Amino acid sequence: MLVTVKLFAGLRELAGAGELRLNVAEGSHVSDVWRVLADRHAGMAAYAPSISCAVNADYSRMTAAVQDGDEIAFLPPVSGG
Amino acid sequence: MLVTVKLFAGLRELAGAGELRLNVAEGSHVSDVWRVLADRHAGMAAYAPSISCAVNADYSRMTAAVQDGDEIAFLPPVSGG
Amino acid sequence: MRDLFRVSGQLLDAATVTAAVEDARCGAITTFVGTVRNHNAGRLVQWLDYEAYEPLAVKSFERIAQEASERWPGIRLAIHHRTGRVAVGEASVVIAAASAHRADAFGAARYAIERIKQIAPIWKREHFQDGEVSIEGATADPDDRSARQTAMERACS
Amino acid sequence: MRDLFRVSGQLLDAATVTAAVEDARCGAITTFVGTVRNHNAGRLVQWLDYEAYEPLAVKSFERIAQEASERWPGIRLAIHHRTGRVAVGEASVVIAAASAHRADAFGAARYAIERIKQIAPIWKREHFQDGEVSIEGATADPDDRSARQTAMERACS
Fold it and tell me: How close, in Å, is residue B6 to chain C by CA atoms?
C-alpha cells in the first residue's frame, strides 16, 4: 500500500525532501515506515529516540497501524515559540 | 504657616473638596495636619488606620515635618488597576 | 514620544505601551491589559470612574519598575493608567514588560499589576444602573514589606 | 475573521490576537509576544526561519487551549505563530489569554508558551553572519505527563 511521508527540519534535510511516497507492506505500523526511511537515509536512525509522529495530521504513536493513503509525519525535536 | 491639602476619593467626598488651604502651627507634622482635618470633617477620623500620605507628591509618613507651602496629600485605601 | 509611565484621561493603546519597551535584545514581551467588566459582584456595571493623584501615581509606577529591576535585572517596564470615565470593555491599565527571558517578562508584568493595586494612588468608583460605589482596597504603603512580598510570590512561579 | 489559532507566513499583529479573545465578561488579558533577538549564545542573529507542519500545529494550539481550559475554566486563548523568514525584532509567536481573573490570564498565557515549545510541530533555523543552525528542542509528545506538569508548574505561582 502507498503512504505519504512528511519530513521536517533535520529529517527533511537528511532525506533531501519534505514529502515522499512509500510503498509499505499491508499491515504495517508507523514504526515499519520509519524503519524503511532509517535504512534508506544515513543519519536518520540517530533520531529514533527523539522523534514523534503523526498520522493524517493527528498526533499518533509508532505502534499505530497504517492504512493505504495515510499521511505519516515524523517530527524531530521541536523548537517553536 | 500655610499648606495645601489634597484629598481623594472618600476623603474628598467627606471634605466636599479635593484641595484645601490650611493654616497650621510652625513645627507641625503631617499627623497634625491630619488631626485638623479629622476634627473638622465628620467621618474622616474613621480613616485614620488606613490612610497613607504624601508630601510634595512623594510618599511620606505621618511623622514627617511640614514646611510652609508644602502640598500634603492624604490617600485613602487605593483601588487602581 | 514613548512614555514609559503615564496617567491620563486618554484612551489606552496596548501597542503604544508595548512599543515603549521593545528592544532588539529582548525576545519576550508580556503585556497585561485590565479592562472594565460588564458586571461585578453580581451587579451590571455601566462604567467606572478613575481618580488619581497623578504626579505621585507616575512616581509609584517608576518605583514599581525600580523594584522589578532589582528582582529581574535588565527588565524593561512600561505602565499606562487611565483616569476619568472608562466604559465597559475599555482598558483602565496597560502594563508591558520586555526581557531576554520569558519568565522575567511574565514575572515583572504580574508583579507590576499586583503592586499597582497595592500602592498606586488611584481610586475607582463603580457606576451601576441603580447606584454607585467607591472602591477602597489596599492601604497605600510602599514600604510595607509584607505587601511587597505577597506581590513577589504571586509573580514568581 | 477572528482566528483563535493560526499558523501562517503573515506578519503577526498582537492587537489582532488580543481582539480574538476580548469579551465583556473578561477584565484581564495577558498577551505574550516572542520576538527574534539580535543575538543568541553570543552570536549575531540575522534572521530566523520557521518551518511548521501547519495542520498539526493548529491542532496542537487547540489542544493546548483545551488543556488550559481544564485548569482555568472559562479561559479564552488565542495563539498565532509565524512561519518562514522572521527578521530581528519581528514576532514569531503571539499568545493572548483573557479571563475574569488576572491570575488565570497570566497562568494560561505562560502555560501556552511552555506547551508550544514542548509539543507544537514547529522548527526554527537560526541564520548568523557566518552560518546557520537548526534548533532541536523538545521531543514533541503531547501525552508526556512530566512535560505537561513542568509547564503547569511554570505557569502557576
Answer: 9
pTM above 0.90, yes or no: yes
HSE, side-chain direction, 13 A CA sphere, residue C80? 24
| Alpha carbon of C122: minimum distance to chain B alpha carbons (Å) | 5
D141 neighbors A52 (Cβ within 8 angstroms): yes
Which single residue is written with the C-alpha cell 519598575? C65
Angle between helices D102-119 and D145-155 (to 10 degrees): 150
Spatial CA neighbour of A51 closest among A22, A11, A15, A16: A11
**Nearest CB to D24 within list C89, C110, C157:** C89
Q: What is the pLDDT along chain D (157 residues), one digit of tens a residue?
A: 579 999 999 999 999 999 999 998 899 999 999 999 998 888 899 999 999 999 999 999 999 999 999 999 999 999 999 999 999 999 999 999 999 999 999 999 999 999 999 999 999 999 998 889 899 998 899 999 999 999 999 998 5
Give residues 87 to 116 of C whose Cβ lies within 8 Å of D.
Answer: 88-89, 100, 102-103, 105-106, 109-110, 113
> Is the ipTM beyond the 0.90 threshold?
yes
Alpha helices by DSSP H, listed for chain D, are 14-21, 54-71, 102-119, 145-155
Q: Would an 8 Å CB–CB cutoff place D152 in contact with chain C?
A: no
What count of residues does chain A have? Answer: 81
Residues of C whose CB is below 8 A from B73: 53, 56, 121
Query: Dihedral of CA A11/D148/D63/C37: which sign?
Result: negative
Which of helix, strand or coil describes residue A2?
strand
Of D78, D20, D80, D5, nearest to D50 by C-alpha is D80
How many C-beta atoms surround the C-beta of residue C64 within 10 A? 27
Contact C154 D154 (CB under 8 A): no
User: Least CB-CB distance to B81: which of C55, C113, C143?
Assistant: C113
DSSP state of A47: G
Partner-chain contact D29 C36, CB within 8 Å: no
With CA atoms as reference, the chain D residue closest to A13 would be D134
In sign, the C-alpha dihedral spanning C139, C142, C148, C154 is positive
* 3-state DSSP assignment of residue C2: coil
Q: Where are the alpha helices (DSSP H) in D8-73?
A: 14-21, 54-71
Strand partners, A60: A53
d(CA D127, CA C47): 50
CA dist B74 and C56 (Å) reads 12
- In a 3-state reduction of DSSP, which class is residue D36? coil
Nearest C-alpha in D relative to A50: D139
